[in-house]
Amino acid sequence: MSLSLRFLAVAAAFLIAHTVSAAPIIIKYSHVVADQSPKGQAALKFKELAEKKFPGVVEVQVFPNSQLYGDGKEMEALLLGDVQIIAPSLAKFGKYTKKLQVFDLPFLFDNIQAVDRFQDGPVGQALLNSMTDKGIKGLGYLHNGMKQLSANKPLRTPADAKGLKFRIQSSDVLEAQFKAVGANPQKLAFAEVYQALQSGVVDGTENPWSNTYTKKFHEVQKYIMESDHGVLDYMVVTNAGWWNGLPPNIRKGLNEAMVESIKYGNKIAFDEAANFRQKVIDDKKAEVLPMTRAELNQWRKAMAPVWKQFEPEIGRDVIDAALKANER
User: Fold this and answer.
1) CB hemisphere CA count around 249 (13 angstroms)
2) How far is it, in rounded angstroms, from Cα 75 to Cα 63?
3) Around Cβ 1, how many Cβ atoms within 10 Å?
4) What is the rounded CA–CA span in Å between residue 265 and residue 38?
5) Which residue intervals of the chain are DSSP H helices?
6) 97-140: per-residue pLDDT in tens?
7) b/e string for 159-198 if b means 16 or more Cβ within 10 A?
């Protein structure tokens, strides 16, 4: 080969290698809610931070409102590598691990600060890796908020719930929760809840303040107890194989961006919960009733058998760590 041809070959190889190395890492972040929601805002913040850390190297594409995949398909898409990040409800991981049922256990956490301490602690962080053998890597927890009990009568004690029909999302723990106090759990799609409450198909439900106000449940419920009896959260997850295949410096930077974006989203969620609570009170369509410590203790005592029922699946160590997070 002549010197000129050899030079051209080397130059071409260099250009090809440069082009390949310059191709950005595309990260598709898919979720099922609006950009304006705390989860949506956290996703956009991650995009901003990740692209700022790695300009021209990383490109984050956010797809809100089930634009790519809905609740039923997003996990499959993640495992197939069609998307790289999703943020499902913690209740959606039951087929991959039973340990996350700890977040459904009723009256386990005192408040959202206790949830934070547990999630940030060693056991909560270990749960992020509880599904790696299934190809799922947890990157962090996003808040929706603490749930409140509601009905057309005050629910001050467990006995007040006896015989009432409560809407629940599909969850063995939540079914056991209401059965423990003699109530009748009814699994209904979220879109059907308002009409079911309005028509009397169900007597009560449980929801965070954001759902209660935005879906107008307070207009068809007479009483809302400030029970803070459970948490409705999400886990931000990625494909474990894809994540572990990233260059170490990229993985480290993306993890830092994710941690910061989650803090940002959780602050929005916390502030929104307080704002929606006040809006419910100001509307004066439902009476918001605080629960005393004595009343909460009665509910907690009534729910102890539920904790015991699911202890073999969740692990005593996980439940103990959650209870310890209540200590200041």
Assistant:
1) 4
2) 15
3) 8
4) 5
5) 3-22, 38-53, 74-80, 112-120, 122-127, 172-179, 193-199, 209-214, 240-244, 248-283, 293-314, 316-324
6) 999 999 999 999 999 999 999 999 999 999 999 999 999 999 99
7) ebbeebbbbbbebebbbbbbebbebebbebeeeebeebbe
Report helix, strand or coil for 280: helix
Token pair of 41, please? 């805002």
| Amino acid residing at 94 | G
Tokens 């495992």 map to which residue?
79
CA angle 91, 227, 155 (to 5 degrees): 110
196 phi and psi, to 5 degrees? -65, -40
pLDDT in tens, 229-254: 999 999 999 999 999 999 999 999 99
d(CA 225, CA 262): 28
Which pair of tokens denotes residue 281? 């009170």
With tokens 């004690």, the residue in question is: 157
Phi (first) and psi of residue 36, to 5 degrees: -75, -15
> Taking the model in full, what pTM does it have?
0.87
